[in-house]
Amino acid sequence: MPGVSPDDSFFDLGGDSIMSIQVVSRARTGGLLVSARDVFRERTPALLARAATAAVTTTEDLDAGTGAFAPTPIMRWLEQYEATDGFNQSMTVRVPAGLDEQALVRAAQALIDHHDVLRLRHHPDGTYEVRERGTVPVTVRRVGPGDGEAAETARRELSPATGDVSRFVWFDAGSDAPGTLLIVLHHLVVDAVSWRILLPDLAAAYEAVAAGRAPELAPVATSYRTWAGHLRAADRQAELPVWQEIAATAEPLLGTRRLDPAVDTAATAREIELTLEPDVTEALLTRIPASVNGTITDALLCGLATAVVEGRGAGPVLVDLEGHGREHVADGVDTSRTVGWFTSLYPVRLAPDGRTPTDRLKQVKEQLRAFPDNGVGYGILRHLRGEPGLAVEPQIGFNYLGRYTDGDDTGDWQTVDGPTPAPRSPEMPMTHAVEITAVTENHEGCPHLVATWTWASGLLAESEVRRLARAWFDALTALADERPDVGGLTPSDLSDDLTQSEIDSLEAELGDW
Fold it and tell me: 93 pairs with which residues across the strands?
């Protein structure tokens, strides 16, 4: 990036936790070994250079990713719900005019053979199995550009019990116009980071096949199956009191009643989408986190908790927070090229009661720093260990998917709008009263925060949700309107045992130190 100095912070420049995985992957490609934890801790190119070591090309045996394995915490979480066959993520990409159908089939097959988890099957005894390479044929359906049923058909055909976890639908616009390719994957096998691996791999595989070459995709260092084993072996017992305290939190109702999985299904869900102004988004990506040595997630959750308290009244706000989950759980693990559902889902308790927006941001930042490794231990303790006192069901779910920088790129194999299936089967229960999924997209060269609000219509009226969503954006705007020199360190930035008031007093006394 032009103009970036060795001492500029990755997060101050708009980086986020998901993009940190891409940094790790590209560094490895360039022969350097750093971890996502290094990116978060060191932040600047100068400090990362000191932490980096020469990458030693080590990959598992090809068979390490195949065979049976016990579920991960997020898989175990999903098992508590009914009607999850259609639970999916999907992406649509533009494909070249005159696409070679056989080349597409071979490229998609190469993707399934290379990324083990795309050959997943869920057995009745609760275990999962990754089948051998070459045993799972790809399903590619060719339809016309106006076929409005193809996307939903692809979703309905998903069934982990039979091993049907992927569908590819080619919307053929003819030999003279680019078509689109819809990829539908069961959520058990994919997450936001995985798409950033899969889509370039699919493009590379197609280009190789079309040129008469065999696809040669970059190796995967650690398989999903191996990762699952590391999670089960991880010792997170020391965190138990932290999570038990969070789970014991009493929280006022957000809607008219508690969520009822028998009544509040996806069929009753309603959805709105709001977009934040680019100048506020830019501040959220750069200046606001930089002012407190934080991240965009700190700012987003600070604004959300502020809005909830203003609308509902005083009291702690519980949020089920989704993280990318690719945390350091064992030495020698590298998941920067691994496809799968790594998500960590954990409850956070937010209580922003500071006098100014920045005061509240500092409080939320510190409340989030109380959870080691971005909450990965909660799922291990609750869903794998079965520890007592951890069951809690926050009313709000939140997921920030990071920043997509190719919004203005409409070339082949880039993501585009197109027909997509519903993310869930109509019968699947809602998992939260309100779910917020946010992503930063580039439009006309400017970043825009796009937030999708999904809620159970039996609990909340649309007017209530819109009011809360608007209050959230207002709280984010208030953060952006703070003076540029407002900010400062917080206790987690320092090794000394100082309180926030003591740090503020020192900063006032010492000035710009």
Answer: 181, 415
C-alpha to C-alpha distance for 415 and 92, rounded to whole angstroms? 6
CATH 3.30.559.10 describes domain 62-225: yes
Amino acid at 444: E
CB contact set of 149 (below 8 Å; sequence gap of 6+):
none
CB 453 within 8 A of CB 461: no
Q: Which fold has domain 266-409+431-481?
A: Chloramphenicol Acetyltransferase (3.30.559)
Q: How many angstroms separate the CA atoms of 130 and 68, rounded?
A: 6
pLDDT by residue, tens only, the chain of 513 residues? 566 776 666 666 666 655 666 576 566 666 666 665 576 566 677 666 776 666 555 678 888 999 999 999 999 999 999 999 999 999 999 999 999 999 999 999 999 999 999 999 999 999 999 999 999 999 999 999 989 899 999 999 999 999 999 999 999 999 999 999 999 999 999 999 999 999 999 999 999 999 999 999 999 999 999 999 999 999 999 999 999 999 999 999 999 999 999 999 999 999 999 999 999 999 999 999 999 999 999 999 999 999 999 999 889 999 999 999 999 999 989 999 999 999 999 999 999 999 999 999 999 999 999 888 999 999 999 999 999 999 999 999 999 999 986 555 678 999 999 999 999 999 999 999 999 999 999 888 899 999 999 999 999 999 999 999 999 999 999 999 987 666 677 777 776 677 776 666 665 656 554
Looking at domain 1-57, which CATH architecture does it have? Orthogonal Bundle (1.10)
Between CA 304 and CA 400 the distance in angstroms is: 12
CB-CB contact of 118 with 165 (8 Å): yes
CA 141, CA 233: separation in Å to the nearest integer? Answer: 41
Q: Would you call 213 exposed, middle or buried from its count of C-beta atoms within 10 A (0-12, 13-18, 19+)?
A: exposed
Domain ranges for the chain: 1-57, 62-225, 266-409+431-481
Q: Do 1-57 and 62-225 show the same overall fold? A: no
d(CA 356, CA 475): 11
Please give the Cα distance from 405 to 447 (Å, whole number).
8
